[in-house]
Design brief:
Layout (H helix, E strand, L loop, with lengths): L4 E5 L5 E5 H10 L10 H4 L11 E6 L22 E4 L2 E2 L8 H11 L13 E6 L8 H12 L1 H4 L3 E4 L20 H12 L3 E5 L17 E9 L2 E5 L30 E4 L3 E4 L5 E4 L2 H24 L12 H10 L31 H4 L16 H8 L13 E9 L3 E5 L9 E7 L4 E4 L12 E4 L4 E8 L9 E5 L6 E7 L6 E9 L5 E9 L5
Parallel strand pairs: 3-6, 3-7, 4-6, 7-8, 8-9, 9-11
Antiparallel strand pairs: 1-2, 4-5, 9-10, 12-13, 14-23, 15-22, 16-21, 16-23, 17-18, 19-20, 19-22
């Protein structure tokens, strides 16, 4: 038999054809394949995950065109949004269409055979803020809220491949202190609408720094390729700790109080992008890294909903919580390539920063008071590893827990919750543990309609302080038997990645150290260890 071909026509012009083997090879070398986030394996049997029936959102200055509604995409069906809007209403036909927004949307939901999206089966709701000088953070917050309310208030993740420069912030002497209106809005909506916001990280001097000073979202830096593998933090990322830069940039381009904004790294360099007219171009930036993360949430949520329908044990609607997704994505990130013995948790690549150092050389690895690295966050997004982290389901601290799993519950001020691992751990193996919780932001709801309206603002009630420990199973207090810890006083994430010194039984402790707002704090926890079989 001859080779099977896939052919497509762009704008009624000449047909292009590729053999299935050539197409498969090209995809694997791209950002969705093994060289990138390894999402394509989840599209195929036995997983068959493409984000079916999962709603995700997009907020930008403009919006993608919608087939059947906008003439500019009349000959291009690569993406078909479930809804397109202008702020808090339906979009006008042929208005506010933006190639950048279309590029970003295609990374998430494209159904093109040659350039599929991360979650081609997901339902995308896209909102344009509008590109006029009158538009600012209030209108951007309104747009984010409107997206969060779509699909019966069930939008699992919302992509921000845009942001606001500090120079446009109306506050006198504005700095990255978490108090910009849009930043407060993101943290409020994360909790109230229970959607994971995925924010393009600050990119380049004078970049889109607001709302990267959030607490409750996931901020994404972008990686570039070395020998065709996405494994280096791209030099254009401004992400860092501010060391060695002018003091005038601290609080302007870098968060204050020693906070590090980046959560994850995802492919964003020389990404092939589909334009509204169907043509393909390559571009780079954090704008194109963030939708890789948003699309991955859709894949995981499709799997979670499948487990709910099958009434599988250890599964409930708790799997939909944004903190669970945040903990799962961060904990499963690639840091150091496994040697083949599984001791490094089967990680598939070694990510290096702009100084060519790997995660083991970072302050975050060496200092328990620093939870995530300034450039790399917790490492590089890996969709398949995120599936492996998520798939064991939720486990109760009242029972011995498996080597890999997650949980969502509450802890009271001054108390701890402990998780005892069922099996002894292998010596010299690594363990990864991530704890995520929310800053408490409330809406000053002047008209009591339980929604944000232009002219209203938010109240920051602060961040409760939680600590995370790996202890020997027989340890009675956090002062004894500590193997590793993450005790940042300024972040809403604690993250441990450390070697297990000796074979033995261990436990994880979540400790509510200092109360700032409420006396009960919801949290999500994810862990990945290597047991003795």
């Amino acid at each position: 038999m001859g080779k099977k071909l896939i052919c497509w026509v762009i704008l009624g012009m000449s047909a292009s054809c590729l053999s299935l083997s050539v197409l498969a090879s090209a995809l694997e070398e791209g950002s969705l394949g093994k060289n990138g986030i390894d999402a394509l394996v989840l599209h195929r049997s036995p997983y068959n995950l493409i984000g079916r029936k999962i709603a995700i959102g997009q907020v930008e200055i403009g919006r993608p065109g919608m087939f059947g509604w906008d003439k500019v995409v009349s000959k291009n069906r690569a993406i078909s949004p479930a809804g397109v809007f202008l702020r808090d209403g339906r979009a006008k036909s042929n208005k506010d269409i933006d190639p950048h927004a279309y590029n970003v949307a295609a990374i998430m939901v494209s159904t093109d055979k040659a350039l599929p999206g991360v979650a081609p089966g997901a339902r995308l709701y896209s909102d344009a803020v509008g590109n006029t000088k009158r538009m600012g953070q209030p209108e951007e917050c309104l747009s984010a809220q409107y997206i969060a309310l779509q699909n019966g208030r069930d939008v699992r993740a919302i992509n921000f491949s845009f942001g606001e420069p500090l120079e446009r912030d109306p506050r006198p002497g504005a700095i990255l202190d978490g108090n910009a209106l849009l930043t407060l809005c993101v943290d409020w909506s994360s909790r109230v609408h229970d959607s994971l916001y995925v924010i393009a990280g600050n990119q380049g001097k004078g970049g889109i720094s607001i709302p990267t000073d959030n607490y409750n979202a996931v901020n994404v830096a972008f990686s570039s390729q070395r020998e065709e593998i996405y494994n280096k933090v791209a030099v254009d990322n401004l992400a860092g700790d501010g060391k060695g830069v002018s003091s005038r940039l601290i609080g302007k381009e870098f968060d204050i109080a020693g906070r590090h904004s980046i959560s994850l790294v995802a492919p964003g360099s020389n990404i092939n992008l589909i334009n509204p007219d169907g043509k393909v171009n390559a571009s780079s930036g954090t704008s194109f890294a963030a939708p890789h993360v948003t699309g991955t949430v859709a894949l995981l949520q499709e799997f979670g909903d499948q487990q709910l329908r099958k009434k599988q044990p250890h599964w409930s609607v708790i799997s939909r919580h944004h903190q669970v997704m945040k903990a799962v994505l961060i904990n499963s990130a690639d840091k150091i390539q496994d040697r083949g013995d599984g001791l490094r948790l089967g990680m598939t690549k070694t990510l290096i920063d702009k100084q060519n150092q790997n995660w083991l050389a970072t302050d975050a690895y060496k200092d328990p008071k620093i939870s995530l690295d300034a450039q790399m966050g917790a490492g590089h997004l890996n969709a398949f590893r995120a599936y492996q982290q998520f798939s064991p389901g939720q486990w109760q601290p009242s029972d011995a827990v498996p080597a890999i799993g997650w949980d969502y519950r509450t802890v009271n001020a001054g108390t701890s919750v402990e998780y005892t691992l069922a099996k002894p751990l292998k010596p010299n193996s690594f363990i990864a543990i991530t704890l995520a919780w929310d800053r408490l932001v409330e809406l000053n709801d002047l008209n009591h309609n339980q929604q944000y309206d232009i002219g209203e603002n938010f109240r920051d009630r602060g961040l409760n302080n939680l600590d995370l420990y790996l202890l020997k199973a027989n340890a009675k207090s956090s002062d004894m038997g500590v193997v590793c810890s993450s005790i940042s006083q300024v972040d809403s994430v604690q993250h441990i990645f450390c070697p297990v010194p000796a074979q033995g039984n261990y436990k994880i402790r979540v400790h509510f150290r200092h109360q700032v707002n409420e006396a009960t704090q919801p949290y999500a926890l994810a862990w990945w260890s290597v047991p003795i079989n």
